[in-house]
Write a structure and sequence with these properties.
Elements lengths: L12 H10 L3 H14 L4 H8 L3 H14 L20 H11 L11 H12 L5 H10 L2 E4 L2 E4 L4 H21 L9 E7 L8 E4 L5 E4 L6 E7 L6 E6 L17
Helix pairs in contact: 1-2, 2-3, 6-7
Length: 253
């Protein structure tokens, strides 16, 4: 026969049952159920089968209850929410504000630079890992910026798009017997160019890198017909500064 475990009478059998029935927390409810069943002369093996807890763990629970009483029961993790956070809410808001501008050295934010910023704020050294953790916690991620020429004028581009349709209509009107097509052209000067590295930004932002392309030696022109996808290319050793491209469509692309 399995041995019955002796339970100290800190609470009566009725009180144990009431606390078991009324417990809101699942862990606390299971603990009172175990003690109540054992106090009701159930064997440890029976209680293990009913509750799903191992016999060895039941012995540990009883050991604490017999020596301390009901205070030993329940999930004690609720009483220990964890250590103090490195940055409070105000300091985290200050970090978020700092991340909206480039770091003081003019480079890009990374885990080390964020850790250095935090170290200066809290007054003691913080590991690089903590800087990386705060970047991730604030929903920042590493992304490669989309290049945009430093002389780009967004409003001028938008205005050009609006005028394009009317320009095509006017050309067709001026040349009623001609087949008027809109082609796109891009020019590429082959040579060295800046390296665009990944940078930390929040998850809603597409970073833009202001660059000044510098190329030498060879000129590459690409022409694309948006409707058909037809393409053809020119490779030129040089192009005069004010050259006008008078393009005749070739026989074959």
């Amino acid at each position: 026969m399995p041995k019955h475990i002796s339970i100290e009478p800190h609470l009566s059998l009725t009180e144990l049952e009431q606390r078991y029935r009324q417990a809101k927390d699942g862990v606390e409810r299971s603990h009172y159920q175990i003690i109540w069943l054992l106090a009701s002369r159930r064997s440890s093996q029976e209680v293990s089968q009913i509750t799903g807890y191992s016999v060895s763990w039941i012995y540990e629970l009883v050991w604490g209850y017999n020596r301390i009483g009901p205070e030993s029961l329940g999930d004690k993790r609720h009483e220990h929410p964890g250590g103090k956070t490195l940055l409070n809410d105000i300091q985290q808001a200050q970090l978020w504000q700092a991340l909206q501008s480039p770091p003081t050295d003019g480079g890009l934010w990374n885990g080390r630079k964020v850790a250095d910023w935090i170290s200066e704020l809290v007054g003691y050294s913080v590991s690089r890992q903590r800087g990386w953790e705060y970047l991730k916690e604030m929903k920042f991620r590493l992304r490669v910026p989309r290049p945009s020429h430093e002389e780009t004028d967004y409003f001028e581009q938008e205005e050009w798009k609006k005028k394009l349709a009317s320009e095509v209509t006017q050309v067709q009107k001026n040349h009623p017997d001609a087949d008027v097509e809109v082609w796109t052209m891009d020019e590429h000067r082959i040579g060295l160019k800046p390296i665009i590295r990944r940078m930390w930004v929040d998850e809603w932002t597409q970073p833009i890198a202001s660059v000044n392309w510098r190329f030498k030696w060879l000129w590459l022109y690409g022409f694309v017909h948006p409707q058909s996808g037809e393409t053809y290319w020119w490779i030129l050793p040089f192009v005069a500064g004010q050259t006008h491209l008078n393009i005749d469509k070739p026989e074959s692309g």
